[in-house]
C-alpha cells in the first residue's frame, strides 16, 4: 500500500466529484418520468444505509483496503479469489466511465474523431495522475472542486434567469406507483451512483483521521445526492417529460437551451469542461483502486510498475464492452446492476460484515475466557 | 570484440587521467604551516599565484624588524591600507625591552576593525584572495590578516526587473555584504541569523543563508544547509547556479524557488518564515520554499490598499490564464467549436481567414514564434538598435503579415493580447513557464479542441500538485486547502487582518499583529468636542 495520507476535506471533495461524475450524464432514472427525482432521493437514502456496511467493515480493519481484509475475513484463498473479482470489477467500472465520456464526446462535438483516440488521450492523463500517487489525485480534486462548483452554480442561475423552468412539468407528483419507484431505485439509483461508494473501501485507509470517515463520506453523499436531485428536477422542468425521456444526455440538452441577452448561449462546451473534470476524477479513482488492489494482491513492491499496463487494459476494455452507444447504455442500466452491482456492492459486503461480526465476537469471547 | 575492449580500455585510461587532473586541481598548499622566514613565504606566495600582476607586496621595517604587507590590488581599499596599516606600523616606536613582536603588531599597530591570526596556507590564500591584507613578520610562523575589503563595486541602484509604483526603490547589488546589510537594515532583530559558507571549487563563492530564528522552520533550514553543502561544482557565478542545484525537481517548467532583486520582498518573505540564500556576485537573492501563488504577489499589493491590490491580483491571475491558453482558445474555437463564437463574429473571422492559406494552428504558430524571436532579440539588442527593431517588428507583425495574407487580423489581436498578458506576471520565471506551456496547449487544441486544452490543463494541474519546494506542497494553501492560510492568496486581506504568518511555511511565532488593530475613528475623541465648544 502506498504511503499516502489525505485529509478529511480532500476525501469529501473526492466523494462529491466521484458521485456526480458520470451519474449526472447518464444516470437519470428515465422510466419514472416526472417522478425520477423521488428515485434519486430514495437511492441516496439507501446508499447512505449501504455505506454504513462499508463503514463497519472499515472499522474492523482501519489500516487495510478491501482486497486485503477479504483474506482475513473469509480465509486466504477464497479471499484472494474474491479480491481478484473486485479488482476486475473496479477496472471494468473504470472502463465503463471512460466509455461514457468517450461516447459523449464522439456523439456531440467530435463526430469525426475516432473514439479510441479520445479515450486514449484521457487514459494517458489518468495514468499520469496514477503515477503521481493518490495524494496528488486528492489535491487535483481539491483544486478543481471550486471550479466545478462555481460552474454548476453559475449554470443553475443562468437556467433560472433564462426562464426555462416550468414547474408544472413535475405534476402529477407520484403518478407511478411505489412498487415501480422502488424497483427503479434498487436497480438504478441505489447501485449507480450511490452503491459505487464500495470503491472507497479501498481508499478509506488513506484518511489521516479515521474518526471523520463516516461524517465526511455521508455528508459528501448527501450533498451529491441533493445536487443530483436538483439536476433531475431542472431537467424535467426545462425539457418536459417527453424530451427528458428521449434525450441521450438530458443535462446537455438543458444547458444548450440557455439563452440570455443574445450573447450567453451555446454553453455546451462549459458542460463538457465540467464533465471532463468529474469524469477524470471518477476514472482515476476506479483506476487507482484497481491498481492498488492488484499491487497488494500480487505483492508488487511499487504499484507504479503496473499502472500503465492496467491503464491499457482499461482502455481496451472500454473499446470492447459494447459495439455502440445504445448497447453500452443498455448493458449499464439493465444488465450490470443485476449481475455485477448487486452481488459486489450489496450482497458480498453484507455477508462479509456478518462473518466479520461473528468472528470478532468469537475472538472477543475467547479473549474474555482466557 | 578487440576494438570494443580497446575502446573501453581507452576510456578507462582517460577516466584515470581525468581523476588525476582533478586531484591536481585540488593541490592547494594544504594544511602546511607558515614558514618562519618571511622572504621564503613571499616567494612561495608569488609562486603559487604565478607572479600575478595584481599581487601587491610592500616590504617594511618596524624598528629593527622586517616584515611585508601583501594584498591583491583592486580588491582592497587602498586608502584604508595606507591610513590604518602602513602609517601606524611605520610611526610606531618599538619598545626597547624584550617583547613579543607578533602580539605587539597585532594588538597595537593595526588599526582595523577586524584582524585575525593565520597559521596555515589555506587560510592565508583564502583571506588574501577575498580582499584582506596579510602582514608577514620575519621570525614568526604566523601571519596577520586585516579586513581591508574594498575596491570598485556597483552602487545601490533602482530595481530593473521588478518595478513597483510605490515602495522602496533600492535593489540588491553584486556584493554579498551590501545585500545582507540591505536586509539587516530592514529587520533590526537579533533573531535575523546569517550563516555563511563557500561554494565552488575554483570560484570559492561566498554564500549566505538568512532566516529569522524562531519563525523559520528549523527542519527546512537544515534541509537548505544540507543541500548547499552537497554542492560540489567548480563555479557559482550567479544565484541561478545555486537554484538549479538545490531545487527538488529539474524536469518542470515551474520555478520552485523564488528570486528577487528587491530587499523589501526578501524581508517580507523572511518574516513569513522563508529562508533567503544570498550568493556573492549576484543581484538576485533566492528565497525558499516557494509556492505557486507567491509568484502572483507583487510588492505593490502590500503597499496599496487591500481592495485595489486584491482586484489587481485577480487581474494578474486572469492574465496568466490568457497568456497560457489565449492562442489555443482561438485555435480550438475556429477549428472545432465555431458555434461558440457569436454568429456575426464567426462570419467576420471566416471572411478574414478566407485569404489565409494555413490552418489556424500553423497561423498561430507562425505568429507566436515570430513574436518570441522578436522578444528574445529585443532583450539582447543594444539600446540604440532596439527601437528600430521594435518598429520593424510592429510593422511586420501588425501590418505586413496581414496584408500579405499570411495571418488574419484576429490572430494579430490574439497574439498581442497574449504577449501583453504575459508581461503582467510579476516574476519572470513564472511568465516564461506560461510561455513555454502555451505551445504544448496550442498543439493539443489543434488536435482535439477544447477537450485537448482541458486535458492539458488537467495534466498541468496534476504536475503542479505533485511538485514540492523543500517539502512544502507547491500548490498549498490551495491544494491541500487550508482555510486559515487564505489571507494572502486570491484575496489580500487588509493589513490588520493579516493576522497570522502562513502556517504551511512558518513554524513558530505565528501571530503577527496585536489585538484590535482595525483602524476606527476615536470614540468621542476629545478633539471633536473641543471643536464643538469652539463653535459655540
Oligomer: heterodimer
Largest interface, Cβ cutoff 8 Å: A-B, 32 and 26 residues
Distance between the amino and carboxyl termini of chain B = 114 Å
Compressed to H and E, one letter per element, the order of chain B equals: HHEEHHEHEEHEEHHEHEEHHHHHHHEEH
**CATH class category of chain A:** Mainly Alpha
Succession of helices and strands of chain A:
HHHHHHHHHHEEHHH
Query: Could you name the CATH topology of chain A?
Result: Hydantoin permease
Largest sheet of chain A: 2 strands, antiparallel
* Main beta sheet strand tally, sense and closure of chain B: 5 strands, antiparallel
Q: Structural class of chain B, please?
A: alpha+beta
Number of strands of chain B: 12
Low-confidence stretches of chain A: none
Region (Disordered) (chain B): 512-536
Keywords (chain B): Membrane, Transmembrane, Transmembrane helix
Transmembrane segments (chain B): 315-336, 386-406, 412-432, 439-464
Organism (chain B): Neobacillus kokaensis
Essential attributes:
heterodimer; A: mainly alpha; Hydantoin permease; 13 helices; 2 strands; B: alpha+beta; 3 domains; five-stranded antiparallel beta sheet; globular
Describe the structure.
The complex is a heterodimer of chains A (370) and B (536). Chain A has a two-stranded antiparallel ribbon with strand order 1-2. Chain A has one domain: Orthogonal Bundle (Hydantoin permease), CATH 1.10.4160. The longest helix of chain A has 45 residues. The mean pLDDT of chain A is 88. In chain A, helix 11 packs across helix 12. Helices cover 74% and strands 1% of the residues of chain A. Chain A has 370 residues and is mainly α. Chain B is an alpha+beta fold and 536 residues long. Chain B has 3 domains: 109 residues, no CATH class; 115 residues, no CATH class; 170 residues, no CATH class. Chain B is built from 17 helices and 12 strands. In chain B, the strands form 3 sheets. Chain B has a 5-stranded antiparallel beta sheet, with helices on both faces. In chain B, strands 6-7-9-10-8 form a 5-stranded antiparallel beta sheet, with helices on both faces. In chain B, a hairpin with a 5-residue loop joins strand 6 and strand 7. In chain B, helix 11 packs antiparallel against helix 15 and helix 13 runs antiparallel to helix 14. The C terminus of chain B is likely disordered. Chains A and B meet through helix 6, helix 7 and helix 11 of A and helix 16 of B. Chain B: It is found in: Cell membrane; Membrane. Chain B: Its main location: membrane. Chain B: Belongs to the GerABKA family.
Amino acid at each position: 500500500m502506498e504511503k499516502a495520507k489525505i485529509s478529511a476535506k480532500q476525501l469529501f471533495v473526492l466523494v462529491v466529484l466521484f458521485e456526480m461524475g458520470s451519474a449526472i450524464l447518464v444516470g437519470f432514472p428515465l422510466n419514472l418520468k416526472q417522478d425520477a427525482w423521488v428515485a434519486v432521493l430514495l437511492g441516496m437514502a439507501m446508499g447512505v444505509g449501504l455505506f454504513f456496511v462499508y463503514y463497519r467493515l472499515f472499522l474492523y480493519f482501519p489500516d487495510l483496503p478491501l482486497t486485503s481484509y477479504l483474506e482475513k475475513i473469509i480465509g486466504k484463498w477464497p479471499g484472494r479469489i474474491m479480491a481478484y473479482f473486485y479488482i476486475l470489477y473496479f477496472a471494468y467500472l473504470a472502463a465503463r466511465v471512460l466509455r461514457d465520456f468517450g461516447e459523449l464526446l464522439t456523439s456531440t462535438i467530435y463526430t469525426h474523431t475516432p473514439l479510441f483516440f479520445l479515450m486514449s488521450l484521457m487514459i494517458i492523463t489518468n495514468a499520469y495522475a496514477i503515477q503521481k500517487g493518490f495524494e496528488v489525485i486528492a489535491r487535483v480534486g481539491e483544486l478543481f472542486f471550486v471550479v466545478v462548483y462555481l460552474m454548476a452554480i453559475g449554470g443553475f442561475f443562468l437556467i433560472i434567469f433564462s426562464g426555462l423552468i416550468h414547474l408544472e412539468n413535475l405534476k402529477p407528483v407520484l403518478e407511478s406507483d411505489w412498487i415501480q419507484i422502488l424497483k427503479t431505485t434498487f436497480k438504478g439509483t441505489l447501485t449507480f451512483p450511490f452503491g459505487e461508494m464500495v470503491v472507497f473501501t479501498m481508499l478509506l485507509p488513506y484518511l489521516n483521521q479515521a474518526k471523520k470517515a463516516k461524517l465526511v463520506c455521508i455528508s459528501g453523499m448527501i450533498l451529491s445526492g441533493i445536487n443530483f436531485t436538483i439536476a433531475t428536477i431542472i431537467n424535467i422542468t426545462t425539457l418536459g417529460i417527453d424530451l427528458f425521456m428521449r434525450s441521450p444526455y438530458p443535462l446537455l440538452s438543458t444547458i444548450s437551451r440557455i439563452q440570455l441577452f443574445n450573447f450567453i448561449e451555446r454553453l455546451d462546451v462549459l458542460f463538457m469542461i465540467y464533465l471532463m473534470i468529474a469524469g477524470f476524477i471518477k476514472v482515476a479513482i476506479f483506476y487507482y483502486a484497481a491498481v492498488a488492489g492488484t499491487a497488494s494482491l500480487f505483492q508488487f513492491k511499487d504499484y507504479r510498475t503496473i499502472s500503465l499496463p492496467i491503464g491499457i487494459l482499461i482502455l481496451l476494455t472500454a473499446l470492447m464492452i459494447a459495439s455502440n452507444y445504445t448497447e453500452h447504455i443498455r448493458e449499464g442500466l439493465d444488465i450490470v446492476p443485476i449481475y455485477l452491482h448487486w452481488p459486489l456492492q450489496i450482497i458480498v459486503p453484507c455477508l462479509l460484515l456478518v462473518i466479520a461480526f461473528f468472528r470478532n465476537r468469537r475472538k472477543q469471547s475467547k479473549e474474555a475466557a482466557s | 570484440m578487440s576494438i570494443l575492449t580497446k575502446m573501453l580500455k581507452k576510456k578507462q585510461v582517460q577516466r584515470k587521467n581525468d581523476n588525476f587532473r582533478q586531484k591536481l586541481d585540488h593541490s592547494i598548499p594544504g594544511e602546511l604551516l607558515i614558514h618562519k622566514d618571511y622572504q621564503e613565504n613571499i616567494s612561495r606566495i608569488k609562486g603559487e599565484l604565478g607572479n600575478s600582476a595584481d599581487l601587491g607586496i610592500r616590504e617594511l621595517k618596524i624598528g629593527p624588524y622586517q616584515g611585508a604587507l601583501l594584498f591583491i590590488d583592486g580588491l582592497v581599499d587602498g586608502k584604508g591600507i595606507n591610513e590604518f596599516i602602513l602609517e601606524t606600523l611605520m610611526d610606531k616606536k618599538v619598545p626597547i625591552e624584550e617583547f613579543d613582536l607578533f602580539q605587539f603588531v597585532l594588538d597595537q599597530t593595526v588599526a582595523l576593525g577586524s584582524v585575525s591570526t593565520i597559521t596555515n596556507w589555506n587560510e592565508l590564500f583564502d583571506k588574501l584572495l577575498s580582499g584582506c591584507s596579510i602582514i608577514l613578520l620575519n621570525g614568526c610562523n604566523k601571519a596577520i590578516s586585516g579586513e581591508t575589503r574594498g575596491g570598485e563595486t556597483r552602487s545601490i541602484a533602482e530595481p530593473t526587473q521588478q518595478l513597483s509604483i510605490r515602495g522602496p526603490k533600492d535593489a540588491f547589488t553584486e556584493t554579498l555584504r551590501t545585500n545582507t546589510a540591505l536586509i539587516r537594515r530592514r529587520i533590526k532583530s537579533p533573531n535575523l541569523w546569517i550563516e555563511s559558507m563557500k561554494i565552488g571549487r575554483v570560484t570559492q563563492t561566498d554564500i549566505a543563508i538568512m532566516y529569522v530564528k524562531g519563525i523559520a522552520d528549523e527542519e527546512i533550514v537544515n534541509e537548505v544547509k544540507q543541500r548547499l553543502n552537497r554542492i560540489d561544482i567548480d563555479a557559482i557565478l550567479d544565484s541561478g547556479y545555486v537554484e538549479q542545484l538545490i531545487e527538488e525537481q529539474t524536469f518542470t517548467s515551474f520555478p520552485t524557488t523564488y528570486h528577487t532583486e528587491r530587499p523589501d520582498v526578501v524581508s517580507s518573505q523572511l518574516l513569513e518564515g522563508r529562508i533567503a540564500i544570498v550568493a556573492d556576485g549576484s543581484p538576485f537573492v533566492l528565497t525558499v520554499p516557494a509556492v505557486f501563488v507567491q509568484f502572483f504577489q507583487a510588492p505593490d499589493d502590500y503597499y496599496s490598499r487591500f481592495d485595489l491590490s486584491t482586484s489587481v491580483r485577480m487581474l494578474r491571475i486572469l492574465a496568466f490564464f490568457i497568456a497560457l491558453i489565449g492562442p489555443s482558445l482561438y485555435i480550438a474555437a475556429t477549428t472545432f467549436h465555431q458555434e461558440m463564437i457569436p454568429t456575426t463574429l464567426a462570419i467576420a473571422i471566416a471572411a478574414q481567414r478566407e485569404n489565409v492559406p494555413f490552418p489556424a494552428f500553423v497561423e498561430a504558430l507562425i505568429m507566436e514564434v515570430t513574436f518570441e524571436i522578436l522578444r528574445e532579440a529585443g532583450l539582447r539588442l543594444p539600446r540604440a538598435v532596439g527601437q528600430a527593431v521594435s518598429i520593424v517588428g510592429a510593422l511586420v507583425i501588425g501590418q505586413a503579415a496581414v496584408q500579405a495574407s499570411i495571418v488574419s487580423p484576429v490572430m494579430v489581436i490574439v497574439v498581442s493580447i497574449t504577449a501583453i498578458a504575459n508581461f503582467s506576471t510579476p516574476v519572470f520565471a513564472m511568465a516564461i513557464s506560461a510561455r513555454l506551456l502555451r505551445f504544448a496547449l496550442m498543439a493539443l487544441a489543434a488536435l482535439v479542441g477544447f477537450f485537448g486544452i482541458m486535458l492539458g490543463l488537467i495534466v498541468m494541474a496534476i504536475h503542479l500538485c505533485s511538485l514540492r519546494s523543500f517539502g512544502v506542497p507547491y500548490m498549498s494553501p490551495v491544494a491541500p486547502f487550508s482555510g486559515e492560510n487564505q489571507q494572502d492568496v486570491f484575496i489580500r486581506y487588509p493589513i490588520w487582518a493579516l493576522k497570522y504568518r502562513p502556517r504551511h511555511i512558518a513554524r513558530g511565532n505565528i501571530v503577527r499583529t496585536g489585538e484590535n488593530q482595525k483602524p476606527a475613528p476615536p470614540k468621542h475623541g476629545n478633539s471633536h468636542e473641543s471643536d464643538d465648544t469652539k463653535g459655540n
